[in-house]
Write a structure and sequence with these properties.
Elements lengths: L7 H4 L26 H27 L19 H23 L4 H24 L8 H21 L4 E7 L8 E2 L1 E2 L5 E2 H9 L3 H7 L4 E7 L17 E10 L8 E3 L5 E3 L8 E10 L9 H10 L6 E7 L4 E7 L1
Antiparallel strand pairs: 1-5, 2-4, 3-8, 5-6, 6-9, 7-8, 9-10, 10-11
Length: 332
């Protein structure tokens, strides 16, 4: 949960023209420099370092301060949260690298050097979380997290090296579920707990907090742009901005591996697996690559670049491991 879409992503969303996108010659602040601009580069490095330091301190106080510290250790959390956390690492590392690359190119840094810098930033940001985990008694350094971080960074770098383009985007959407007002009895005669209360303890009470934390509401997407593979031979009926997206989610998660938990007083609770079965969800939907929408407005290009990690609401077909097939007229 701690890795998903950190706030510094938005800061790094500086606009870079895509192949074929309108980009008039200009020295406007929002336009990328043709050659390395030392002033821009120094400003990005300084601001990036300051944001990294403040974000690291903030992350410590938000997530780790209230838990005991211990010696550096590793643990294996593969399969926890139905692997939503692992794919979240991939989505986050990918987008951190992409937006860091756009920031580097805005300064005028050369293409391959920008790729290397962006990949390093992606691994550094995610690696910081892993090191903090490694000293926390509640968590630990996870090699599985490192593997999925590397997958996200590699997906970014591989596409830039092969195509100078990001034809496959990784995105996120979140529609927080309406948790039922159900009482869960404690084992051994302790006080009962409301399931909605359990969800708020795990995922927060506000939508902004739940957007980052609530695995039951999150869907992680791989969004492919078919038109980008045609080049100049793109069919006229195929919009350049239209994507096809496949998504992954999971439902009824009230604990890492199962729906059994304990409160601060040692009371234990368990959900009936028949009433609340944990299951995985797979989606097929349409999406929009915002950066491929042609516009003359620099501000809009900036905004589109900053928000392109968010999946656009659209109709979706769901197939899940509970044996269900559903059509959502509008899904996000």
């Amino acid at each position: 949960m701690r890795n998903l879409i950190p706030i510094w992503l938005l800061f790094l969303g500086l606009p870079v023209a895509l192949p074929g996108q309108f980009s008039p010659p200009s020295t406007h602040f929002l336009e990328p420099a043709d050659t390395l601009n030392p002033g821009r580069f120094r400003a990005c490095v300084t601001a990036g370092a300051a944001i990294y330091a403040s974000a690291s301190v903030g992350l410590y106080h938000l997530w780790y301060k209230n838990y005991d510290l211990t010696g550096f250790h590793t643990f294996n959390d593969l399969g926890e949260w139905e692997d939503m956390d692992k794919l979240g690492h991939t989505v986050t590392a990918y987008n951190q690298s992409v937006l860091s690359y756009y920031g580097a190119r805005w300064t005028g840094l050369e293409h391959k050097k920008s790729i290397a810098l962006a990949a390093g930033v992606g691994m550094l940001l995610q690696g910081t979380v892993e090191v903090m985990d490694g000293f926390s008694e509640k968590w630990g350094f996870s090699w599985a997290d490192v593997a999925f971080n590397t997958l996200g960074v590699t997906l970014f770098a591989g596409q830039e090296l092969a195509w100078r383009d990001q034809r496959l985007l990784l995105k996120i959407s979140n529609s927080r579920p309406g948790y039922p007002d159900v009482t869960v009895p404690a084992e051994g005669g302790g006080p009962p707990m409301n399931l909605r209360q359990r969800a708020e303890e795990l995922y927060g009470s506000s939508y902004a907090e739940a957007f980052l934390k609530d695995y039951n509401g999150q869907t992680l997407w791989a969004s492919l742009n078919p038109a980008s593979f045609y080049g100049q031979n793109k069919p006229g009926w195929l919009p350049a901005w239209l994507n096809i997206a496949v998504g992954y989610g999971a439902e009824n998660m009230f604990g890492g591996y199962d729906n059994y938990w304990s409160d601060e007083d040692g009371n234990s609770y368990a959900l009936d697996p028949q009433a609340f079965p944990r299951y995985r969800q797979f989606y097929l939907s349409l999406d929009i690559d915002l950066r491929r929408i042609p516009t003359h407005k620099r501000g809009l290009r900036f905004l589109f670049g900053a928000l392109n990690w968010i999946k656009i609401p659209a109709p979706a077909l769901e197939v899940n491991t509970a044996g269900g097939v559903k059509f959502h007229p509008m899904y996000w």
